[in-house]
Amino acid sequence: MKHVFSFFTALLLAQLLFGQEISIKGKIKNYSGSDSLIVKIYSQPNPLETKVGVSKKGEFSYNYIATKTSFCYLYFSENDVITLFLSPNEKASIAADYTDMQGTYSVTGSDQSIVLEKNVHGLMKHLNTVEDLRKEYEAKVDSVNQKIQQDIAKAIKQNPSNYGNLTLINSLNIDQYPDIYQLLDSALFATYPSDFIVTSFHNDIQKQLVLRTGSKIDEISLPNQKLETINLSSLKGKVVLVDFWASWCRPCRMEIPNFKKIYETYHNDGFEIYSISVDDEASAWIKALSQEQMPWANVRDINKEYSNKYNVSAIPFTVLIDAEGKVVAKGLRGDELNEKISSLLKTSYKK
Fold this sequence. Notes:
By secondary structure, the protein is an alpha+beta fold. It has helices at about 1-20, 100-105, 110-160, 180-190, 195-210, 250-265, 280-290, 305-310, 335-350, and strands at about 20-30, 35-40, 50, 60-65, 70-75, 80-85, 90-95, 105-110, 220-225, 230, 240-245, 270-275, 295-300, 315-320, 325-330. It has nine helices and 15 strands. α6 (about 250-265) packs parallel to α9.
């Protein structure tokens, strides 16, 4: 033990004798006042990482001993990093904006870091130019695509019973042109009622249109575990998440804790969940209900009537409807679902 102690003592003395202090200080404009600044120093195979406190004014400082020049990263988020190249005995001073650290930072007191800063900002300028050109290109492509869709919609409108329109309609976004889909469907179905392709198109479109964004969802009437019928319309006036799931579906079960948090957060503000099980066995469903303890409406689609009607081919499958019973979105999960519910409830409250 004495030899080990002597070794570490000698190592510490060597560091003190041959290493020199490097000082980093700075001020972060628009700092939120909650995050710690991460300082990561690459002077050995495993980088040294330290959390540095930042004052409410955005000021920070950090000192360390080094024997050689090394890279140093400063960041609150790994997507926005300031890179420094620091040598022993340097006193680097940093200024940056919290909202865009890499794009706004400036450094003094470190010659190599100053050169690096100029190169980084020069490179970012070129990258920003490339990004602007990409956006400009995409905007032009979108404009052309919109014109294409408008022309296709116009052509179908002029002659909706033309069988050849089936080759054009797939180029149209059904959420943007539901009226064109309905027009073509009704015209072709009236003209070619026995045609297999037209019939398949009709059945597929009816399923898609029934849950299109902005459409009103039809009534759902299903039994709960006590065989009491619960109608979706009983939740009228609420923002409702219709959730198709099953006891054997692992992703469905994993999503339930998130649903519980959302339910607890927004239930008193007018949010409800209407969970529809597609379990074949009632016993498996009831056991899952006992385990999960979901405090909202739970029913079972015994004959797969509604899962077939709404073209539910995979679960979990969710449909979010507003207080008027209109479809807002399908398949939302996590933060996206949480944000959309919050937005809908604020809109409903204003009304």
